[in-house]
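Q: My collaborator sent me two sequences in one message, no labels, and asked for predicted structures for both. Can we handle them in order? The first one she listed is below.
A: Yes, handling them in the order given. First sequence, followed by its C-alpha coordinates:
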Amino acid sequence: MSVTTEGDRDPVSANDNGSPYGLGHSSGVSGFFAWWREELAVLAPKGMRRAFESHTMGATVQELDGQALLKRKSGAAGKVLPADPRKVAALLPKGGVIYLLPEDGALRRERRLPSASRAHIQDIMNLQMASETPFTVDEVYTNSVVSGEDDATREIIVAQALAPRPAIDAIVQRMRDTYGIELAGMDIATPEGRAGFNLLPAADAAPARAGWPSVNKLLLIAAILAGIFAAVSWRDLQQRRIASADAVIAAAEGNASEAIAAKTQIENGIAGIQRLAATQKDPTSFLKVYNQIAALLPDGSWLEEYSYEAPIATITGLSANSSSLVEAMESSELVKSARFTSPIVTDQRTGAERFRIEITLKSQPGQEKQP
Protein backbone atom coordinates (compact mmCIF):
# COMPACT_ATOMS: atom_id res chain seq x y z
CA MET A 1 0.00 0.00 0.00
CA SER A 2 2.99 2.30 0.42
CA VAL A 3 5.12 4.18 -2.10
CA THR A 4 8.78 5.12 -2.08
CA THR A 5 9.68 7.75 0.50
CA GLU A 6 12.80 9.64 1.47
CA GLY A 7 12.93 8.84 5.19
CA ASP A 8 12.79 11.43 7.97
CA ARG A 9 11.74 14.81 6.64
CA ASP A 10 9.66 17.87 7.44
CA PRO A 11 8.10 18.85 4.10
CA VAL A 12 5.59 21.59 3.46
CA SER A 13 2.26 20.18 4.63
CA ALA A 14 -1.43 21.07 4.55
CA ASN A 15 -3.44 18.79 6.81
CA ASP A 16 -7.18 18.50 6.20
CA ASN A 17 -7.53 17.48 9.86
CA GLY A 18 -6.32 20.94 10.96
CA SER A 19 -2.82 19.95 12.07
CA PRO A 20 -0.29 22.82 12.26
CA TYR A 21 2.26 20.91 10.22
CA GLY A 22 4.55 23.02 8.04
CA LEU A 23 4.33 26.33 6.16
CA GLY A 24 4.05 26.96 2.43
CA HIS A 25 5.26 30.03 0.54
CA SER A 26 2.66 32.69 -0.20
CA SER A 27 2.67 36.34 -1.09
CA GLY A 28 2.89 39.08 1.52
CA VAL A 29 4.71 39.28 4.84
CA SER A 30 4.19 35.62 5.79
CA GLY A 31 5.61 34.46 2.47
CA PHE A 32 8.64 36.74 2.92
CA PHE A 33 9.53 35.32 6.33
CA ALA A 34 8.98 31.73 5.12
CA TRP A 35 11.38 32.34 2.22
CA TRP A 36 13.84 34.18 4.45
CA ARG A 37 14.00 31.29 6.93
CA GLU A 38 14.78 28.80 4.14
CA GLU A 39 17.48 31.05 2.63
CA LEU A 40 19.16 31.43 6.04
CA ALA A 41 18.97 27.65 6.59
CA VAL A 42 20.91 27.09 3.35
CA LEU A 43 23.57 29.68 4.22
CA ALA A 44 24.01 28.61 7.88
CA PRO A 45 26.52 25.92 8.97
CA LYS A 46 25.06 22.41 9.13
CA GLY A 47 24.98 22.37 12.92
CA MET A 48 22.91 25.58 13.06
CA ARG A 49 20.34 24.77 10.36
CA ARG A 50 17.78 23.35 12.80
CA ALA A 51 17.39 26.88 14.21
CA PHE A 52 15.61 27.91 11.02
CA GLU A 53 13.83 24.71 10.07
CA SER A 54 10.20 23.90 10.97
CA HIS A 55 9.97 22.35 14.42
CA THR A 56 9.27 18.60 14.47
CA MET A 57 9.12 16.33 17.48
CA GLY A 58 11.66 13.50 17.54
CA ALA A 59 10.05 11.20 20.11
CA THR A 60 8.01 8.35 18.60
CA VAL A 61 6.01 5.40 19.89
CA GLN A 62 5.30 2.25 17.90
CA GLU A 63 3.38 -0.90 18.80
CA LEU A 64 5.29 -4.10 17.99
CA ASP A 65 4.34 -7.64 19.11
CA GLY A 66 1.77 -6.30 21.57
CA GLN A 67 4.20 -3.85 23.23
CA ALA A 68 4.55 -0.07 22.90
CA LEU A 69 8.13 0.93 22.05
CA LEU A 70 9.20 4.55 22.81
CA LYS A 71 12.14 6.21 21.02
CA ARG A 72 13.09 9.63 22.39
CA LYS A 73 14.79 10.61 19.12
CA SER A 74 15.43 9.18 15.66
CA GLY A 75 18.03 6.42 15.71
CA ALA A 76 17.96 6.04 19.51
CA ALA A 77 17.35 2.72 21.23
CA GLY A 78 13.72 1.97 21.98
CA LYS A 79 12.27 1.44 25.46
CA VAL A 80 9.23 -0.74 26.18
CA LEU A 81 6.55 1.28 27.98
CA PRO A 82 5.14 -0.22 31.17
CA ALA A 83 1.37 -0.70 31.40
CA ASP A 84 1.18 1.87 34.19
CA PRO A 85 0.37 5.46 33.14
CA ARG A 86 2.16 6.87 36.22
CA LYS A 87 5.45 5.19 35.25
CA VAL A 88 5.00 6.12 31.58
CA ALA A 89 4.62 9.82 32.44
CA ALA A 90 8.20 9.92 33.77
CA LEU A 91 9.55 8.59 30.46
CA LEU A 92 7.78 10.99 28.09
CA PRO A 93 9.73 13.95 26.62
CA LYS A 94 8.46 17.53 26.91
CA GLY A 95 7.93 17.98 23.19
CA GLY A 96 5.19 15.34 22.87
CA VAL A 97 5.07 11.95 21.17
CA ILE A 98 4.27 10.94 17.58
CA TYR A 99 2.65 7.55 16.97
CA LEU A 100 4.09 5.55 14.03
CA LEU A 101 1.72 3.41 11.98
CA PRO A 102 3.15 0.38 10.14
CA GLU A 103 4.02 0.96 6.47
CA ASP A 104 0.84 -0.85 5.38
CA GLY A 105 -1.31 0.98 7.94
CA ALA A 106 -2.21 3.78 5.52
CA LEU A 107 -2.75 4.20 1.78
CA ARG A 108 -0.10 6.42 0.14
CA ARG A 109 0.03 7.95 -3.34
CA GLU A 110 1.83 10.73 -5.22
CA ARG A 111 0.72 13.27 -7.82
CA ARG A 112 2.44 16.07 -9.77
CA LEU A 113 0.70 19.46 -9.56
CA PRO A 114 1.47 22.95 -10.88
CA SER A 115 3.66 24.96 -8.49
CA ALA A 116 0.95 27.64 -8.31
CA SER A 117 -1.33 25.16 -6.52
CA ARG A 118 1.02 24.82 -3.51
CA ALA A 119 -1.36 26.67 -1.17
CA HIS A 120 -4.30 24.42 -2.13
CA ILE A 121 -2.74 20.95 -2.30
CA GLN A 122 -5.03 19.52 0.39
CA ASP A 123 -8.25 20.47 -1.46
CA ILE A 124 -6.89 19.29 -4.81
CA MET A 125 -5.62 15.94 -3.48
CA ASN A 126 -8.91 15.33 -1.63
CA LEU A 127 -10.93 15.93 -4.81
CA GLN A 128 -8.72 13.50 -6.74
CA MET A 129 -8.77 11.01 -3.85
CA ALA A 130 -12.56 10.71 -3.93
CA SER A 131 -12.58 10.04 -7.69
CA GLU A 132 -9.53 7.72 -7.81
CA THR A 133 -10.04 5.62 -4.65
CA PRO A 134 -13.05 3.87 -3.08
CA PHE A 135 -12.98 6.30 -0.13
CA THR A 136 -14.59 9.65 0.62
CA VAL A 137 -13.15 12.44 2.75
CA ASP A 138 -15.60 11.62 5.53
CA GLU A 139 -14.32 8.03 5.81
CA VAL A 140 -10.60 8.74 6.31
CA TYR A 141 -8.09 11.06 7.95
CA THR A 142 -5.77 12.44 5.28
CA ASN A 143 -2.64 14.57 5.02
CA SER A 144 -0.80 15.86 1.93
CA VAL A 145 2.81 17.07 1.84
CA VAL A 146 5.09 18.50 -0.84
CA SER A 147 7.81 15.85 -1.27
CA GLY A 148 9.68 17.35 -4.22
CA GLU A 149 9.80 20.10 -6.85
CA ASP A 150 10.60 20.11 -10.57
CA ASP A 151 11.87 23.56 -11.58
CA ALA A 152 12.06 22.57 -15.25
CA THR A 153 8.33 21.91 -15.51
CA ARG A 154 7.33 24.32 -12.70
CA GLU A 155 5.61 21.45 -10.89
CA ILE A 156 5.59 20.13 -7.33
CA ILE A 157 5.41 16.48 -6.29
CA VAL A 158 2.69 15.98 -3.66
CA ALA A 159 2.44 12.85 -1.50
CA GLN A 160 -0.82 11.96 0.24
CA ALA A 161 -1.54 9.49 3.05
CA LEU A 162 -4.98 8.40 4.19
CA ALA A 163 -6.18 5.98 6.86
CA PRO A 164 -9.66 4.91 8.05
CA ARG A 165 -11.03 7.20 10.76
CA PRO A 166 -12.18 4.35 13.08
CA ALA A 167 -8.67 2.84 13.08
CA ILE A 168 -6.99 6.16 13.95
CA ASP A 169 -9.57 6.99 16.64
CA ALA A 170 -9.07 3.54 18.20
CA ILE A 171 -5.29 4.05 18.40
CA VAL A 172 -5.66 7.49 20.03
CA GLN A 173 -8.09 6.09 22.60
CA ARG A 174 -5.92 3.01 23.30
CA MET A 175 -2.77 5.07 23.90
CA ARG A 176 -4.73 7.41 26.19
CA ASP A 177 -6.41 4.64 28.22
CA THR A 178 -3.49 2.16 28.43
CA TYR A 179 -0.47 4.44 28.80
CA GLY A 180 -1.92 7.86 29.59
CA ILE A 181 -0.29 9.31 26.44
CA GLU A 182 -1.93 12.22 24.62
CA LEU A 183 -0.46 11.86 21.13
CA ALA A 184 0.90 15.00 19.49
CA GLY A 185 0.91 13.50 15.97
CA MET A 186 0.53 10.33 13.90
CA ASP A 187 2.93 9.38 11.11
CA ILE A 188 3.90 6.29 9.07
CA ALA A 189 7.00 4.23 9.90
CA THR A 190 9.60 3.73 7.15
CA PRO A 191 12.92 1.83 7.10
CA GLU A 192 14.64 5.22 7.54
CA GLY A 193 12.36 6.41 10.34
CA ARG A 194 9.33 8.57 9.48
CA ALA A 195 7.46 9.37 6.24
CA GLY A 196 6.66 12.98 7.22
CA PHE A 197 2.85 12.96 7.47
CA ASN A 198 0.49 13.81 10.33
CA LEU A 199 -2.82 11.91 10.25
CA LEU A 200 -3.88 12.91 13.76
CA PRO A 201 -6.98 15.15 13.92
CA ALA A 202 -6.28 18.58 15.41
CA ALA A 203 -8.82 18.02 18.20
CA ASP A 204 -6.86 14.97 19.42
CA ALA A 205 -3.38 16.49 19.17
CA ALA A 206 -1.81 17.29 22.53
CA PRO A 207 -0.17 20.73 22.77
CA ALA A 208 3.59 20.75 23.21
CA ARG A 209 4.81 21.59 26.69
CA ALA A 210 6.43 24.94 27.23
CA GLY A 211 10.10 24.99 28.13
CA TRP A 212 13.05 27.30 28.55
CA PRO A 213 14.12 29.35 25.52
CA SER A 214 16.34 27.14 23.35
CA VAL A 215 19.55 27.95 21.52
CA ASN A 216 17.54 27.73 18.32
CA LYS A 217 15.36 30.66 19.41
CA LEU A 218 18.41 32.72 20.32
CA LEU A 219 19.93 32.01 16.92
CA LEU A 220 16.69 33.03 15.26
CA ILE A 221 16.70 36.33 17.14
CA ALA A 222 20.26 36.91 15.99
CA ALA A 223 19.20 36.23 12.40
CA ILE A 224 16.70 39.11 12.54
CA LEU A 225 19.68 41.50 12.56
CA ALA A 226 20.22 40.55 8.93
CA GLY A 227 16.76 41.89 7.99
CA ILE A 228 17.88 44.68 5.67
CA PHE A 229 19.97 42.34 3.55
CA ALA A 230 17.18 39.75 3.45
CA ALA A 231 14.61 42.39 2.40
CA VAL A 232 16.77 43.43 -0.54
CA SER A 233 17.28 39.78 -1.50
CA TRP A 234 13.54 39.21 -1.32
CA ARG A 235 12.90 42.15 -3.65
CA ASP A 236 15.47 40.84 -6.14
CA LEU A 237 13.93 37.38 -5.97
CA GLN A 238 10.47 38.78 -6.75
CA GLN A 239 11.89 40.68 -9.72
CA ARG A 240 13.49 37.48 -11.03
CA ARG A 241 10.21 35.65 -10.59
CA ILE A 242 8.34 38.36 -12.50
CA ALA A 243 10.90 38.20 -15.32
CA SER A 244 10.58 34.42 -15.41
CA ALA A 245 6.79 34.68 -15.52
CA ASP A 246 7.02 37.12 -18.43
CA ALA A 247 9.19 34.64 -20.32
CA VAL A 248 6.70 31.85 -19.69
CA ILE A 249 3.81 34.01 -20.89
CA ALA A 250 5.73 34.95 -24.04
CA ALA A 251 6.45 31.29 -24.78
CA ALA A 252 2.78 30.40 -24.22
CA GLU A 253 1.63 33.11 -26.62
CA GLY A 254 3.98 31.76 -29.29
CA ASN A 255 2.79 28.18 -28.90
CA ALA A 256 -0.95 27.93 -29.50
CA SER A 257 -1.02 24.14 -29.21
CA GLU A 258 0.19 24.26 -25.62
CA ALA A 259 -2.48 26.83 -24.78
CA ILE A 260 -5.16 24.58 -26.31
CA ALA A 261 -3.83 21.58 -24.37
CA ALA A 262 -3.90 23.58 -21.13
CA LYS A 263 -7.50 24.66 -21.84
CA THR A 264 -8.48 21.04 -22.46
CA GLN A 265 -6.85 19.96 -19.22
CA ILE A 266 -8.76 22.61 -17.27
CA GLU A 267 -12.05 21.56 -18.88
CA ASN A 268 -11.32 17.93 -18.00
CA GLY A 269 -10.60 18.97 -14.43
CA ILE A 270 -13.92 20.82 -14.19
CA ALA A 271 -15.73 17.77 -15.58
CA GLY A 272 -13.98 15.59 -13.01
CA ILE A 273 -15.10 17.89 -10.19
CA GLN A 274 -18.65 17.76 -11.48
CA ARG A 275 -18.54 13.97 -11.61
CA LEU A 276 -17.16 13.93 -8.08
CA ALA A 277 -19.99 16.17 -6.84
CA ALA A 278 -22.54 13.86 -8.47
CA THR A 279 -20.89 10.81 -6.89
CA GLN A 280 -20.89 12.36 -3.43
CA LYS A 281 -24.65 13.04 -3.69
CA ASP A 282 -25.33 9.38 -4.50
CA PRO A 283 -26.38 7.56 -1.29
CA THR A 284 -24.97 4.30 -2.73
CA SER A 285 -21.24 4.95 -2.81
CA PHE A 286 -18.70 2.77 -4.62
CA LEU A 287 -17.46 1.14 -1.42
CA LYS A 288 -20.93 0.58 0.11
CA VAL A 289 -22.26 -1.11 -3.03
CA TYR A 290 -19.14 -3.29 -3.21
CA ASN A 291 -19.53 -4.44 0.39
CA GLN A 292 -23.22 -5.24 -0.09
CA ILE A 293 -22.64 -7.24 -3.27
CA ALA A 294 -19.68 -9.12 -1.77
CA ALA A 295 -21.84 -10.06 1.21
CA LEU A 296 -24.43 -11.64 -1.14
CA LEU A 297 -21.92 -14.08 -2.66
CA PRO A 298 -22.46 -17.63 -1.34
CA ASP A 299 -19.64 -19.73 0.11
CA GLY A 300 -17.25 -21.01 -2.56
CA SER A 301 -17.51 -17.86 -4.66
CA TRP A 302 -15.12 -14.93 -4.92
CA LEU A 303 -14.66 -11.80 -6.99
CA GLU A 304 -11.87 -11.02 -9.44
CA GLU A 305 -13.17 -7.76 -10.94
CA TYR A 306 -15.76 -5.18 -9.85
CA SER A 307 -16.98 -2.00 -11.53
CA TYR A 308 -19.83 0.32 -10.63
CA GLU A 309 -21.44 3.20 -12.48
CA ALA A 310 -24.84 3.95 -10.97
CA PRO A 311 -27.16 2.17 -11.19
CA ILE A 312 -25.28 -0.79 -12.75
CA ALA A 313 -22.56 -2.88 -11.09
CA THR A 314 -20.62 -5.54 -13.02
CA ILE A 315 -18.82 -8.38 -11.24
CA THR A 316 -16.50 -11.11 -12.56
CA GLY A 317 -15.24 -14.04 -10.55
CA LEU A 318 -15.14 -17.77 -9.85
CA SER A 319 -17.74 -19.93 -8.14
CA ALA A 320 -18.29 -23.57 -7.28
CA ASN A 321 -21.95 -23.15 -8.29
CA SER A 322 -22.60 -20.19 -10.62
CA SER A 323 -26.23 -21.11 -11.26
CA SER A 324 -27.27 -19.84 -7.81
CA LEU A 325 -25.57 -16.45 -8.11
CA VAL A 326 -28.34 -14.55 -9.94
CA GLU A 327 -30.89 -15.72 -7.38
CA ALA A 328 -28.55 -14.72 -4.55
CA MET A 329 -28.10 -11.24 -6.03
CA GLU A 330 -31.84 -10.66 -6.58
CA SER A 331 -32.60 -11.68 -3.00
CA SER A 332 -31.26 -8.30 -1.86
CA GLU A 333 -33.63 -5.33 -1.45
CA LEU A 334 -30.93 -3.21 -3.08
CA VAL A 335 -30.94 -5.19 -6.36
CA LYS A 336 -33.58 -4.64 -9.05
CA SER A 337 -32.33 -7.34 -11.43
CA ALA A 338 -29.28 -9.46 -12.23
CA ARG A 339 -28.24 -11.37 -15.36
CA PHE A 340 -25.27 -13.23 -16.80
CA THR A 341 -23.55 -11.23 -19.56
CA SER A 342 -21.28 -14.02 -20.82
CA PRO A 343 -21.36 -17.83 -20.94
CA ILE A 344 -20.22 -19.73 -17.86
CA VAL A 345 -16.90 -21.50 -18.49
CA THR A 346 -14.74 -23.74 -16.31
CA ASP A 347 -11.40 -22.36 -15.15
CA GLN A 348 -8.72 -24.96 -16.00
CA ARG A 349 -6.48 -23.99 -13.09
CA THR A 350 -9.01 -24.05 -10.25
CA GLY A 351 -11.83 -26.16 -11.69
CA ALA A 352 -14.34 -23.47 -10.64
CA GLU A 353 -16.91 -21.84 -12.93
CA ARG A 354 -16.03 -18.39 -14.24
CA PHE A 355 -18.95 -15.97 -14.34
CA ARG A 356 -19.72 -12.36 -15.34
CA ILE A 357 -22.92 -10.80 -13.97
CA GLU A 358 -24.51 -7.38 -14.56
CA ILE A 359 -26.48 -6.13 -11.53
CA THR A 360 -29.00 -3.29 -11.81
CA LEU A 361 -29.62 -1.51 -8.50
CA LYS A 362 -32.90 -0.01 -7.37
CA SER A 363 -33.25 3.78 -7.05
CA GLN A 364 -32.76 4.94 -3.49
CA PRO A 365 -35.16 7.40 -1.72
CA GLY A 366 -33.97 10.96 -2.36
CA GLN A 367 -31.40 9.83 -4.95
CA GLU A 368 -30.81 12.43 -7.67
CA LYS A 369 -30.15 11.14 -11.15
CA GLN A 370 -26.84 12.56 -12.31
CA PRO A 371 -25.55 12.84 -15.91
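Q: And the one she listed second?
A: Here it is, processed independently of the first:
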Amino acid sequence: MFRKLDVIIIIFFLILSIVLIFKPYNYSAKKLLLVVENESFYIPYKDGYFNLFNKVKDVFGNEHSVYKSMEFEITDGKIRALHSDCANQICVNTSWIENCGDSIICAPNRVAVIIDCQREDITRK
Protein backbone atom coordinates (compact mmCIF):
# COMPACT_ATOMS: atom_id res chain seq x y z
CA MET A 1 0.00 0.00 0.00
CA PHE A 2 1.08 3.56 -0.64
CA ARG A 3 2.11 5.78 2.20
CA LYS A 4 1.22 9.46 2.33
CA LEU A 5 4.75 10.50 1.34
CA ASP A 6 4.67 8.15 -1.71
CA VAL A 7 1.46 9.78 -2.96
CA ILE A 8 2.90 13.26 -2.52
CA ILE A 9 6.05 12.32 -4.47
CA ILE A 10 4.01 10.74 -7.28
CA ILE A 11 1.74 13.80 -7.55
CA PHE A 12 4.77 16.10 -7.57
CA PHE A 13 6.41 14.26 -10.46
CA LEU A 14 3.15 14.06 -12.41
CA ILE A 15 2.64 17.81 -12.13
CA LEU A 16 6.28 18.46 -13.05
CA SER A 17 6.07 16.25 -16.14
CA ILE A 18 2.81 17.89 -17.29
CA VAL A 19 4.34 21.35 -16.91
CA LEU A 20 7.47 20.38 -18.84
CA ILE A 21 5.51 18.74 -21.65
CA PHE A 22 3.03 21.55 -22.23
CA LYS A 23 5.34 24.49 -21.50
CA PRO A 24 5.59 26.60 -24.68
CA TYR A 25 9.09 27.08 -26.00
CA ASN A 26 10.63 30.45 -25.22
CA TYR A 27 11.39 32.04 -28.60
CA SER A 28 13.46 34.78 -27.01
CA ALA A 29 16.15 32.19 -26.23
CA LYS A 30 16.56 31.48 -29.95
CA LYS A 31 19.05 33.48 -31.93
CA LEU A 32 19.53 33.49 -35.69
CA LEU A 33 23.14 33.09 -36.77
CA LEU A 34 24.00 34.09 -40.33
CA VAL A 35 27.26 32.72 -41.71
CA VAL A 36 28.44 34.25 -44.99
CA GLU A 37 31.74 33.00 -46.39
CA ASN A 38 34.22 33.77 -43.58
CA GLU A 39 32.00 36.09 -41.52
CA SER A 40 29.29 35.24 -38.98
CA PHE A 41 26.91 37.46 -37.04
CA TYR A 42 23.51 37.32 -35.35
CA ILE A 43 20.55 38.90 -37.12
CA PRO A 44 17.17 39.88 -35.63
CA TYR A 45 14.82 36.91 -35.26
CA LYS A 46 11.48 38.61 -35.90
CA ASP A 47 8.62 37.87 -38.28
CA GLY A 48 9.01 39.20 -41.79
CA TYR A 49 11.33 38.93 -44.75
CA PHE A 50 15.02 39.64 -45.11
CA ASN A 51 17.25 39.42 -48.11
CA LEU A 52 20.96 39.33 -48.68
CA PHE A 53 20.84 41.46 -51.85
CA ASN A 54 22.59 44.35 -50.10
CA LYS A 55 23.80 45.25 -46.61
CA VAL A 56 22.40 43.29 -43.66
CA LYS A 57 22.06 44.74 -40.15
CA ASP A 58 22.98 42.55 -37.20
CA VAL A 59 21.34 42.68 -33.75
CA PHE A 60 23.63 45.55 -32.74
CA GLY A 61 22.75 47.69 -35.78
CA ASN A 62 26.10 47.15 -37.54
CA GLU A 63 25.87 46.80 -41.30
CA HIS A 64 27.54 43.89 -43.11
CA SER A 65 28.09 43.84 -46.87
CA VAL A 66 26.76 40.50 -48.06
CA TYR A 67 25.47 40.92 -51.64
CA LYS A 68 24.15 37.40 -52.18
CA SER A 69 21.02 36.72 -54.22
CA MET A 70 19.01 35.07 -51.42
CA GLU A 71 15.78 35.90 -49.59
CA PHE A 72 14.35 34.39 -46.38
CA GLU A 73 11.01 34.45 -44.57
CA ILE A 74 10.46 34.24 -40.80
CA THR A 75 6.98 33.39 -39.47
CA ASP A 76 6.01 32.25 -35.96
CA GLY A 77 9.58 31.34 -35.03
CA LYS A 78 10.11 29.32 -38.23
CA ILE A 79 12.38 30.28 -41.12
CA ARG A 80 12.72 29.21 -44.75
CA ALA A 81 14.61 30.25 -47.87
CA LEU A 82 12.29 31.85 -50.43
CA HIS A 83 14.71 32.60 -53.24
CA SER A 84 18.26 31.77 -54.26
CA ASP A 85 20.11 32.06 -57.54
CA CYS A 86 21.95 28.75 -57.07
CA ALA A 87 21.49 25.95 -59.60
CA ASN A 88 20.02 23.07 -57.58
CA GLN A 89 17.75 25.10 -55.25
CA ILE A 90 18.38 22.69 -52.35
CA CYS A 91 18.21 25.56 -49.84
CA VAL A 92 14.86 26.72 -51.24
CA ASN A 93 13.48 23.17 -51.21
CA THR A 94 14.48 22.73 -47.56
CA SER A 95 11.35 22.88 -45.43
CA TRP A 96 10.75 25.33 -42.59
CA ILE A 97 13.26 25.11 -39.74
CA GLU A 98 12.37 25.99 -36.16
CA ASN A 99 14.34 23.84 -33.70
CA CYS A 100 17.66 24.50 -32.04
CA GLY A 101 20.55 23.53 -34.28
CA ASP A 102 18.47 23.44 -37.47
CA SER A 103 20.10 25.09 -40.47
CA ILE A 104 19.59 26.11 -44.07
CA ILE A 105 22.78 25.91 -46.09
CA CYS A 106 23.44 27.16 -49.61
CA ALA A 107 26.87 25.85 -50.61
CA PRO A 108 27.14 27.68 -53.97
CA ASN A 109 26.47 31.05 -52.28
CA ARG A 110 28.50 30.09 -49.18
CA VAL A 111 25.64 31.05 -46.87
CA ALA A 112 24.24 29.29 -43.80
CA VAL A 113 21.40 30.29 -41.50
CA ILE A 114 21.51 28.48 -38.16
CA ILE A 115 19.08 28.61 -35.23
CA ASP A 116 21.27 29.01 -32.16
CA CYS A 117 19.77 28.32 -28.73
CA GLN A 118 22.75 28.48 -26.42
CA ARG A 119 22.13 29.94 -22.99
CA GLU A 120 24.66 32.77 -23.24
CA ASP A 121 23.39 36.22 -24.14
CA ILE A 122 24.75 37.89 -27.23
CA THR A 123 27.43 40.39 -26.31
CA ARG A 124 29.26 42.88 -28.42
CA LYS A 125 32.78 41.74 -29.31
